[in-house]
């Protein structure tokens, strides 16, 4: 058994995420038999003392049939209407299903705004911790009905990775209609199963696509992105089929395991790097990229060649290289209106009140290259 599967099998606190494609069927909506089978596996693990937060998609899929909608709608307003109807059905089905084991569920609907603001992030943290302490199973989904295009997570894989860090989970299990990551979409021909991802090089050359069932949102692409985010933050991740939930939560050799970083990323750094919303961009020259990314130094005005966005001192901004790659994120110490006359100038050329770092090293998180 791999180290990741072993860690998940022994974890005291887990996030399990299940996708629409594993819970709903095109045409007939929510599949209660499949939902019950998933709940059987989770309840078994809860009975053995593990605290589980379930991130469940499926609201839109479950809302289609009651509204006489055929395929998944393309426009946001109809998706939101379907989610509004479907979320109620989904929550009801979970309450009934966990009820078979005398387990109580608590619904937690989150928008991206609830985790990009640090105070909200802490509030959500407190609610989860209380629900778990009271023995309930939190069932999470994106708050689809109030999320606009700009403030959407967009996919629950990302939401699950954020929640996993937020609650201090010791493992993240992403369950879908496919049993693992393959080197190409298994629906479109012969492909090779990837059982372990131990480094970035294991992901090179793979063709990782969008959902082809028409039910899911992000496809394997968003699962891999979420797995990389959580693994980099120190959380073991397993991608597996919902049908194999019991094995995935046990110690069987199923799915694709993502080896996690050996140290857990502190909450503030994780929030900065992955959760917080960016209000603008600072364009760096090559020297500044090296200083910030390789030497973990503060960003000074002299290394900045351009600024855009609408930010104030204290907001989070992206730091972008001359190759247009976001190389880091950090909390900026100036308003956007102050910076144009400072950038490119050395500290000794600046008036004393402006002689400070633009982004202090303590408020800065270098990012790995994005795919
Ligand atoms: N390289 C790949 N390996 C596995 N699945 C892939 C790959 N590329 C694309 N996919 C597709 O991603 C789908 C799973 O994503 P999605 O439908 O969004 O699931 P969910 O609803 O569970 O989030 C699979 O059914 C598969 O068709
Ligand atoms: N919040 C939406 C699901 C969004 C989503 O990420 O779906 P999926 O790719 O199936 O995990 C819903 O409940 O329908």
Automatic annotation (TrEMBL):
Provide the family line: Belongs to the glutamate 5-kinase family.
Domain of life where this protein originates: Bacteria
Transmembrane ranges, per UniProt, are none
Q: Which PROSITE patterns match?
A: GLUTAMATE_5_KINASE (PS00902), PUA (PS50890)
* GO cellular component: a single term: cytosol
- What pathway or pathways are given for this protein in its record? Amino-acid biosynthesis; L-proline biosynthesis; L-glutamate 5-semialdehyde from L-glutamate: step 1/2
EC class (word): transferase
Q: Where is the PUA domain?
A: 280-359
Which residues are listed for ATP binding in this entry?
Answer: 17, 176-177, 217-223
Biological processes, Gene Ontology terms: L-proline biosynthetic process
Cellular compartment(s) = Cytoplasm
Q: What is its EC number?
A: 2.7.2.11
Q: Which GO terms describe its molecular function?
A: ATP binding; glutamate 5-kinase activity; RNA binding
Q: Sorted alphabetically, which keywords does the UniProt record give?
A: Amino-acid biosynthesis, ATP-binding, Cytoplasm, Kinase, Nucleotide-binding, Proline biosynthesis, Transferase
Q: What is this protein called?
A: Glutamate 5-kinase
Species of provenance: Saccharomonospora glauca K62
Residues noted as binding substrate in the record, renumbered to the chain: 57, 144, 156
Give the SUPFAM superfamilies listed for this entry: Carbamate kinase-like (SSF53633), PUA domain-like (SSF88697)
Reactions mediated catalytically: L-glutamate + ATP = L-glutamyl 5-phosphate + ADP
Q: Does the keyword Nucleotide-binding apply?
A: yes
Instruction: Check the record and name the Gene3D superfamilies matching this protein.
Output: Acetylglutamate kinase-like, PUA domain
Biological role stated in the UniProt entry: Catalyzes the transfer of a phosphate group to glutamate to form L-glutamate 5-phosphate.
């Amino acid at each position: 058994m791999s180290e990741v599967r072993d860690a998940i099998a022994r974890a005291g606190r887990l996030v399990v995420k299940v996708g629409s494609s594993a819970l709903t069927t095109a045409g007939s909506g929510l599949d209660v038999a499949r939902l019950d089978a998933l709940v059987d596996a989770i309840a078994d693990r809860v009975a053995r003392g593990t605290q589980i937060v379930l991130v469940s998609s499926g609201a839109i899929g479950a809302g289609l049939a009651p509204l006489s909608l055929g395929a998944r709608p393309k426009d946001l307003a109809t998706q939101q209407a379907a989610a509004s109807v479907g979320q109620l059905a989904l929550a009801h089905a979970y309450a009934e299903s966990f009820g078979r084991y005398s387990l109580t569920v608590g619904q937690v609907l989150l928008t991206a705004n609830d985790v990009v603001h640090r105070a909200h992030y802490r509030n959500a943290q407190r609610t989860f911790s209380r629900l778990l302490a009271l023995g309930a199973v939190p069932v999470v989904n994106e708050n689809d009905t109030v999320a606009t295009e700009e403030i959407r997570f967009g996919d629950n894989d990302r939401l699950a990775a954020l929640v996993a860090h937020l609650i201090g989970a010791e493992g993240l299990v992403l369950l879908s209609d496919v049993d693992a990551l393959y080197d190409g979409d298994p629906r479109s021909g012969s492909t090779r199963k990837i059982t372990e991802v131990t480094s970035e090089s294991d992901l090179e050359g793979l063709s990782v696509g969008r959902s082809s069932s028409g039910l899911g949102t992000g496809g394997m692409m968003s699962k891999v992105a979420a797995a990389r985010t959580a693994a980099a933050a120190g959380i073991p991740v397993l991608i597996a089929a919902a049908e194999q939930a019991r094995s995935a939560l046990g110690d069987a050799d199923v799915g694709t395991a993502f080896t996690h970083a050996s140290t857990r990323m502190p909450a503030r750094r994780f929030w900065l790097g992955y959760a917080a919303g960016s209000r603008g961009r600072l364009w760096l020259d090559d020297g500044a990229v090296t200083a910030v990314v390789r030497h973990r130094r503060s960003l000074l005005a002299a290394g900045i060649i351009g600024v855009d966005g609408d930010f104030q001192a204290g907001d989070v901004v992206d730091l972008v290289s001359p190759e247009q790659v976001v190389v880091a994120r950090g909390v900026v110490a100036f308003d956007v209106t102050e910076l144009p006359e400072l950038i490119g100038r050395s500290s000794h050329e600046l008036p004393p009140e402006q002689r400070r770092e633009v982004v202090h090293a303590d408020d800065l998180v270098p990012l790995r290259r994005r795919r």
